[in-house]
Fold this sequence. Notes:
Blueprint: H1 10-20, H2 24-44, H3 52-58, H4 64-77, H5 82-98, H6 105-111, H7 127-135, H8 140-152, H9 156-160, E1 167-168, E2 175-178, E3 189-192, H10 195-207, H11 228-245, H12 263-276, H13 279-286, H14 298-309, H15 317-370
Antiparallel strand pairs: 1-2, 2-3
Helix pairs in contact: 1-2, 2-5, 4-5, 8-10, 8-12, 12-13
Amino acid sequence: MRQQLVSEYDKVNIFLNSIGRNSKNSRRMYATGLRYFERFLSHNYSSQNPDTIILALQNQRINTYELLDQFVSYLSQQKIAVPSLKLYMIAFRSYLQYNDIDISPSKFKRRVKMPKCYPDPEEPLSLSDIRELLEYCSNTRLRCYLLVLVSSGLRAMEAAALRLCDVDFTTNPTKIHVRKEYSKTRRARDVYISQEATNHLRKLLEFRKNEMQSDTLIFSIQKRSKSAETIYFKMLHQFEKLQTIANKDERKEYSRRRKITLHSFRRTCFSIINDNTNSQFADWLLGHNHSVYWAHTEKERREIYRTKCMPFLTIYQEARSNTLEDALKEKDRTIKLLTNRIEDVEREQENIITLLQDGGAQLKKKLEEED
């Protein structure tokens, strides 16, 4: 589709610039929806364009709801997936309302029939599936990228935007800082990765140590990939090639989307963490909204991840065994410390009881002497 279509119109540019102040991704999606609208006008209203249609709607020369319904029919004929169609309609409605074209929700529901969406169940991705994929992966960068995704639950774009200064190797487990400008919720947060992912990340950085600076994007290809978006699309392309090689590139029925995507790693991470801790911790780690009453210190969150999550987010058996062994040793040390503490408390209680008994005996003897 021609990229210059939307930029020709002043009203559209003003609208997209207002949308883009908060999110470049939203601007991109709204622009795509309005490009489809421009093509729709060229087929059905050849004398109109996205700028002039506003005046025609304001003067009621064209019925707003008929236009909306016709646009839905046009999008359906383009064989666009229903979720995408709904997003493009949101973009178009927002554009009209931005230009003072009122749309009543009740009238819209009665006059404009939106296609229903029946989502397919997502394909579960287990650690064994990931292990099979990685067996065909000869790309060190992609292998590291996938291990970071599955052990941290990062979104694909969040991982692509990681810089060297965002990784703290001094903590156990390694801490990762997610920048707010690349977070879907526009909130910065800190997450953790497994020791297995840490080892692969260290090897990748060691290989590139001569070109790495604090603000260098970790998964960039030397200095050619200067943006997180470029890295994301390169990783996506390499991942799809890996799926084809591993014979795991099945697509959903009646859709171009694959059953396994980069987002599948995030679902796997959430499921494992939710099973071994609780939904509040899983929501916090993945950057979802969670209860304000769920509060732990950074040290406590790190310990929960290290002992309860990391052993089950480790792909290879050898690394998992070492992680489990470390976790069990730490658990034994904790039990021993608690046991010693209980014994100390019991001894203190015995000493207090003895002192009270001795004091009571002395007081009784003194009272008897006075009598």
